[in-house]
Write a structure and sequence with these properties.
The protein is built from 15 helices and no strands. With 328 residues, it is mainly α. It has one domain: Orthogonal Bundle (MetI-like fold). The longest helix has 43 residues.
Length: 328
Amino acid sequence: MVNEIYLSKLVALGKCIIRQSLNSKLMECMWSDRKMALRNKIVSKLHYFMILPALILFFVFFIYPLFNGISLSLTDYDGMTSPKFIGLKNFIDFFKDSRAKNDVINTLIFALGSAPLLNIFGFLYALLLDSNFRGKSIARTIIYLPAVISPLIMGYIWYFILQPQRGFLFAIAEKLGGGMSNFNWLGNRYMALWIIVIVNVWQFVGMTMVVYLAGLQSIPEEMHEAGKIDGATYRQRIKYIVLPMMIQPIKINVITNIIGSLSVFEIIMALTEGGPGYSTESLSIYIMRKCYGSSTGYSTAVAIILFIIILLPVLASLKVIRSKEYEA
């Protein structure tokens, strides 16, 4: 009888141990499942945390300055005294200022001259350097080298070249004769802006060329060979093979050249400082001079107008290029 009671207690104890062991294993499985689910959830949301630094920088260096600038543009802030709200007066004064209108025209002329020429010559240089000829690396270096030099330094270099009476071009013109030695290239209000356009294109065409050259070299050689087999001429291959495949490089160059041309500053300051008179002054220089002339609120309003002037052609260009991309 005692043995039976002892045996039944051992069986009950064994069942209890087995039950506890199963429960602990079940809890471990449930906990591991929860840990795995939590880990998968964190991993699935990890990309949001990875873009967080970029979002912080975007808000700190773009969104905050933009809204701060909009608020300042509605005041008479002069950089020293406390600002007072004046509504849209700064914007109204801008459209009444004949000098500001002249600077808008100068900026647009510069952009309409620089942006197309940069893209045309950049693409032609890229086509040239995409072919095989002796000295290709040297030619590529020579074309690209001016782009790595500061626009301010490049402007001063060209100033000493074009300087009347003492410049390098003056010395050459004096030897050649013909009366060109006395011509002031940068002092002529009708020529100065176009001289700046030429210098700007000469400096930055290498940067545009590199983007186009990368696009050309990404086109499979089989497509050119297929065009040759079908009897397509070189011009037809450019039109029907190369250009449709170059939408992305074209988009990059068009947008960057529009933004760079409309916000031009350094090269004008180095060559003419906006002169003679205000015939070569851009909106960027106008903003700088008004800001340091104790008209911070007004200069901020002009900066917002310049932002809109840059934004409109950029959006229009993106829309046109996107439609061409769909057609291709």
